Amino acid sequence: MTPKSLVAIQNITQLSAAPGTFMPFECNSGYKPCMDSICSNVTTGFQCVPDPLTETLGTFKTPYPLCVPLNCTSKPTTANGANTCGNMTVHGGNCTATCNKGYESKSGLMFKCEKGAFSTAPKCEKKTCEKAPEIKNADASSCAGIKYGDKCTATCQPGYTGGSKTEEFTCSDTAEFAAPSLTCTPVKCTTAPTLEGATSAELEKC
Fold first, then answer.
1. How far apart are CA 132 and CA 160, in angstroms?
2. What SS3 state is found at 119?
3. Interior CA angle at 4 toward 22 and 24, to 5°?
4. For the purposes of burial, counting CB atoms within 10 Å of the CB of 138, is it exposed (0-12), middle (13-18) or buried (19 or more)?
5. pTM
6. pLDDT tens for residues 63-72?
7. Range scoring the smallest mean pLDDT among 55-64, 77-86, 122-131, 145-154
8. Which is it for the CA torsion 86, 76, 100, 127, positive or negative?
9. Cα dihedral angle (76, 78, 83, 85), rounded to 10 degrees?
10. Helices H, strands E: what count in the chain?
């Protein structure tokens, strides 16, 4: 007599044994035999005994063996961050991660222990400066989408000047750029050309 439904419910994989003998068992992956104080009355195997209600059948002695989910027994690592997990986290338990400055986790900050392994693991990645600095008459498009710590350059558009005509920016740990100081103004003609049939006053309007 094999308690097939029980095997499925208790997460047990049954091993073969001769009728009338003690039948050991092994737990499925992610489970272990219950050896805690709450399982003190649980047997370590199936034992077939005579069924008092029949003469030809047997029954398995209770309480039946019990398999329980494994705990997570190692502390996970968090690249570019840290976490509150200890060396042992119980099945179903949670612990949290924190990312270093300039990093963030888009998948949340929670670790969860599931049958001896963490089913979720936060991943700390560099923050992104999504929006480029806004500078009139300048091109800062190369700054859009760069990562924390990366640099980019804004340049005055052709026909405009602003001292060095460029300004370097760095994506900060808050995914922002410093306020721009670059000012791009139209280039002016400083010397009027000499053209036949035109007055100097007209040329100076250039």
1. 19
2. strand
3. 25
4. buried
5. 0.65
6. 777 888 999 9
7. 55-64
8. negative
9. 0
10. 2, 20
